[in-house]
Amino acid sequence: MTAELVRGQNHALPGTRLEIRVSAGKPIVAGATLSDEGRAVRGTSWVAHPGAPTLPGLEVSQQAAADHRLAVDLDALPDGAHQVNVMLALPVGVGGPVTFGAVAAPFVAVTGLDGTEIASYTITDLSAESAVVALELYRRGDAWKVRAVGQGYAGGLADLLADQGLTDARELAGAINEAVARGLARSVAAPPPRPADEARVRAAAQGHTAPGQPATPPDPAAEPPAQPVVPAAPAAPAQQPGDGGPVNYTHPRRQTAAPPPPPPAASPAAPGQHPAPVAGDATGWSLEERLYNQVWGMFEDLARTAAAYRSAVDFADSRMEQELDKVLSDPRSRIGDTGDTARAAARARHGDLVDQARAALDRDLAQLAAEAEVVEPALPVAFADWSSPVWQGYRAPMEVPMALRLGGLHLPERPDLRIPMLVRLPLERGLWIDSGRSGTDSLADADQLRRLALDSAVTHAARLLASYPPGAFTVHVIDAAGTGRSAFAPLVTAGVLDEPPATGAAGVTAMLKRLTQRVDLVQMAVRGGVADALPQDLDTGEQLLVVNDFPHGFDDRAVTRLRYLADEGPAVGVHLMMVADREEAAEYGPLLDPLWRALLRLTPVPEDHLADPWVGHAWTYEPPAVPPGSQVLAHVLDRVGAARRTGSR
């Protein structure tokens, strides 16, 4: 039976190989420190964090995530280690909540390797703290115990680490935050909670359980993810995340508390079977929102069912290793039939466990594949693949959609099961189309990768233009060396650009100066509450700057302005799309590191570089490709250009 701990309470641990599961609803950092008998941490080598995730007997997550699994083997800890302190912290400088009072109460559980929950603790009564020691596992004689701590620190990781006796706590905290920022730069952002989860999230934040909800969150490996690669409804503008107030989960276009329930399934399922999948079978105010939520649900389902399978296989491997070690440790079983029989039995049990896990995985994957078959054809234009027939009847929209499709994602357990990668509109951060060879095993040469990256940028820009009403979205292009002339030709020919691509150093300077001045003007007007005083000829629509062949044609001042647009532009409707090879900009050194981290990295060829915020899977990203020989891109751009010229649909 699970022990539900309160602050200061302890509980005996039945074994030494454990998992610590953390759930917070928002991406947080999870780490651990080791202490000796005097409760002192013997330097940075006794701290496990995203920048150094493994220690003897201890492994933590390598990035910020809403869910974490920390692996602990108490028997394998370094000599002198008598205590494991589990620490949680909010990421710094990423635009999210800055205090634990602004997020749901973190939930921490200690489990066995088979997932059996031993003890749990919901960390309540946090307010201005940004780091907290959640639990401690400590040695008592020959046994180990777990204690609920819940000690928070308003000064963040630096204060927490200093309180544990580390003299270079501030430097280590900076290194941890830097590692987290690098991880977030490659991650797919988590959507807000689904309406069905809101009561439990609010109740957890208030320290009690909602009626009809379990006292502890379900096993993340068994529960489908809250939402997949689809955009979720934005938080109400009256309350920004991280300002210390309560989180508002209300849909921005409605005043009611919750959206209507999903429509009923087409036909009831037989006992023990899944219901037949239905497109739009999720909560939401419109079909678009229901499909968005459903896609996010599929993404989470795939993430967690794969996590459950991998965890089960790891458990089977560990169990077989233990059984074989036990056989080998007995001299009597090393020879003769006794040892062979024991080894064969251990391998047979391992095979049974793996087969059971694979059967469960195949069942879930088959259900997801069936759902994808009915959802994909029902997706609206902004969510649809370029091969979808909905593009043939394209008309300029009257409203901005919830999200935009940037490609597809899949896991190695089922490569043919692709989940649409949707991002919210307006874009919360810019895009970086990586034209370099880093991290890719593609056979394409450097010139081919650059051309593919440019083609990807054009298709992304075309989709953005097609998703906005006429005149509500403007694309600017910087092509300093003119190397992208043929790639940008479809945009120029269709007349969707207000001006030709900027070339040469003078063109780069003029374009960046004009856009940075626009950002400054809008920022001053918004902060001063005088938005009506903006010049009447100022285009207040969304802007996208596509930069090709960076850093060619960029001097130090141009680079500074580009960084400014990446940091400040999205908040006032100016977005950045970079087509660049990071190695070619290496001459700037660490100066450009914040720029790359501020952008969502995409690749022109499939690559497994994106991570989900729940279990940290490495997802293979596939760029949105126009079918060979198809004229769909030219058709859509012609429609967009005609709508911009006439101001109609």
TrEMBL record:
Residues 63-162 form the TerD domain. Residues 185-281 are annotated as: Disordered. It comes from the Bacteria. Residues 229-241, 267-277 have a biased composition (Low complexity). Pfam families: TerD (PF02342). Belongs to the CAPAB/TerDEXZ family. PANTHER family: CAMP-BINDING PROTEIN 1-RELATED, GENERAL STRESS PROTEIN 16U. This is Export associated protein. It comes from Streptomyces typhae. The lineage of its organism: Bacteria, Bacillati, Actinomycetota, Actinomycetes, Kitasatosporales.
